[in-house]
Specification:
This protein is α/β, with parallel strands linked by helices and 257 residues long. Helices cover 37% and strands 27% of the residues. The strands form 4 sheets. The protein has a 5-stranded mixed β-sheet. The chain has a 3-stranded antiparallel β-sheet with strand order 5-12-6. 31% of the residues are buried.
Length: 257
């Protein structure tokens, strides 16, 4: 092999072996359909608050995003398995903390109660927590609510794929009541053209601020990159830019501890 051929060989070998290291870094982001904060159904590309935040961070870190639409239950599974790196608007629970890192600060604060819906024409009444017993309660599979409700094994909770499915089953009489966040449920009913006049909100409601966090998978192979995402999120919060982003969704300013 002459010198010229040797240089060519070394150059080709360098490109072949260096290319994986030089490849553009990518984050897989699991996105569920949760209007008005994220939209996947009927969209050519998912859009919403988490995506706005991650687009800003990806630009800063020079990484690409792979947006993966999924029902919340599927999103949870992808994140737990490390098949998705990032998810959004997750309520913190001890169970979730086993598989997920909650990225500070919480970017979504909803001062909206958990409410219960029933068919208007029924005589179902829920005036206290105790009135929930003995009723078929529709919940979204994989969703978190408030601790007492989530941990109560005596309640008859029926898990379904989405809030829309839950409302459909309620209207068909296959569920007695459905739990939902008032602010998001009211919006969903309006955009999905569901007959809200056939539904009533029951008297009992659970009031506490709902904090929504971006989360990262503990089983992701991108732990170093996730650490950079956490740093970038804090920088956005400290600069006030994160508050500017969430303000577009009528959410309160981000609280930086």
């Amino acid at each position: 092999m002459n010198f010229r051929h040797l240089i060519h060989f070394i150059t080709l070998a360098t490109l072949l072996f260096a290319s994986p290291l030089m490849a553009h870094e990518r984050l897989v982001v699991a996105v569920d359909h949760a209007p008005p904060y994220s939209y996947t159904l009927g969209e050519t590309r998912p859009r919403g608050l988490l995506i706005d935040i991650m687009m800003r961070i990806s630009k800063q870190l020079n990484v690409s995003l792979q947006l993966t639409p999924c029902p919340i239950s599927r999103c949870v599974k992808l994140i737990k398995a490390g098949q998705a790196d990032i998810g959004g608007a997750f309520i913190k629970t001890p169970e979730r903390e086993q598989d997920m890192v909650f990225l500070d600060p919480a970017y979504m604060v909803l001062n909206s109660p958990f409410v219960f819906y029933a068919q208007t024409e029924t005589d179902i009444a829920v005036n206290s927590y105790q009135d929930l017993y003995g009723k078929r309660i529709g919940i979204v599979r994989g969703a978190a609510h408030f601790a007492r409700f989530d941990n109560d094994k005596k309640l008859n909770k029926v898990a379904v794929q989405s809030e829309r499915v839950a409302m459909d089953l309620l209207l068909k009489g296959r569920l007695d009541i459905v739990i939902a966040v008032e602010q998001t449920a009211d919006h969903s009913l309006s955009v999905l053209n569901q007959p809200s006049h056939r539904l009533k909100k029951l008297n009992y409601r659970h009031d506490e601020p709902i904090l929504g966090f971006a989360v990262a998978s503990k089983r992701s192979e991108n732990q170093k990159l996730i650490s950079r995402v956490q740093t970038a999120l804090l920088e956005l919060a400290n600069s006030g830019e994160l508050t500017q982003i969430v303000d577009l969704y009528d959410l309160p300013p981000v609280n930086v501890k």
